[in-house]
Amino acid sequence: MLDLKLMQRDPDVVRESLRKRNSKIDVAEFLAMDERRKALIADVEALKATQNRVGPEIAKRKRAGEDAEDLLEEMKRVAERAKELDAELSQVEAAEKEWMMSVPNIPHASVPVGVSEEDNPVVRVVGDVPAFDFQPREHWELGVALGGLDFERAAKLAGARFCVSFGWCARLERALAQFMLDTQTGLHGYTEVIPPYIVNRRTMTGTGQLPKFEEDLFKLTDERDFFLIPTAEVPLTNIYADEVLDEEALPVKFCAFTPCFRSEAGSYGKDTKGLIRQHQFHKVEMVNFAHPDHSYEALEDMTRSAERILQLLKLPYRVITLCTGDMGFGAAKTYDIEVWLPGQDKYREISSCSNCEDFQARRANIRFQPKGAKKKEYVHTLNGSGLAVGRCLVAVIENYQRADGSIVIPEALKPYMGGIEVVEPK
Fold first, then answer.
1. H helices present in 64-196, as ranges
2. Which of the residues are catalytic?
3. Which of 102, 186, 284, 342 could bridge to 136 as Cys pair (CB 3.0-4.6 Å)?
């Protein structure tokens, strides 16, 4: 959530931000509500001044044995009017908060202005795209042929956009997750966490999934208002909700391997085959609580941590900067990492690393105490995939395939595969 004082003091900054994001949200709506709020406060204060003035006069008349009925009637009318204004003020303040909750974060000055993914500049390309002397196949075709992926039985169990993994494929996905966790905790200083996979509405609101994106979530149909997590970013970021951290403790770096659940609303007809766009998938997520002075250094560090996984797996990839029109709701700046998929003959997103600055911290009320200062400040929160495990599985299958339909296990994963070095057709 944006700073309310910024919105009131300099609405043109927010108006320009919304223009860059191609948003249709109208700042004039907020300004009209805020003017009404100020007028209501002024009216309430005037009524309170009347009460403060007339109250002693009533007491004075009563002590003198004089009639105060006219003043008592006036106070009754004032009290009723004050009650009406207080109710309206509460409604206006609630509407203001709801409006503020719908406004996306302000892009960092370094973010390129653009409309769509077509305007995302490439930062760097790492690794050579493999040259096959045969027509490479897509992962779903290879995985099914090798008995590792079963979409038909998953559809019987749960419906479309699910998959059952068997044998070598289940082990490979588990190996990837363990390899990612070992790398992020061992090389990059992240603390592993196992968070809840079900969270409440306030937790979803803290990271910006609610109220704007409720249709994208899986909600439990009971009275407790619970949701399945769409990413471990949600519980990890909210670990410190309503808490004050010591400045010396920053940065705090967490990572977690969890299932993720997404309704994929609006993706009808996209990636209907394979593992790219599933309702349930696994991901290793990284979250960083950073000092505001160092959060952009932390963003570069987090992106390098995600890239390291692909480098160790020897998978070709590229890094792009998302433009203002393609950037996520809560992000101030985002790098996407796209891995090369030979079967699709294109790069596909495998990680997204974002600095949300204080946007999420304001919603979740996460602050730190600067040394020697009385006033507490909001931390900056960052999140990134380290990596999306299912998509990494896709990349390994497609990049390490051979002409006979077999798949070679990358060197970095062999210690996790229990002696399996090549997945051979039966």
1. 69-101, 139-145, 151-157, 167-186
2. 262, 277, 349, 352, 391
3. 342
Rg (CA), the chain: 28
Copy the structure tokens of residue 101.
Answer: 């909750």
Q: Are residues 62 and 172 in the same domain?
A: no
* Mean local confidence (pLDDT), 54-58: 89
In a domain, 106, yes or no: no
Residue with tokens 């987090």: 302
Residues 293 and 227 in one domain: yes
Q: What is the DSSP letter of 230?
A: S
CA nearest to 181, candidates 323, 385, 422: 385
Predicted TM-score (pTM) of this structure? 0.93
The pLDDT value recorded for residue 316 is 98
Label residue 334 exposed, middle or buried (CB < 10 Å: 0-12, 13-18, 19+): buried
Q: Is the pLDDT of residue 267 over 80?
A: no
b vs e for 36-46, b when ≥16 Cβ sit within 10 Å of the residue's Cβ?
A: bbeebeebbee
Number of independent structural domains in the chain: 2
DSSP E strand boundaries for 220-324: 226-228, 244-246, 252-261, 280-290, 317-321
Q: What is the Cα–Cα distance from 155 to 248, expressed in whole angstroms?
A: 50
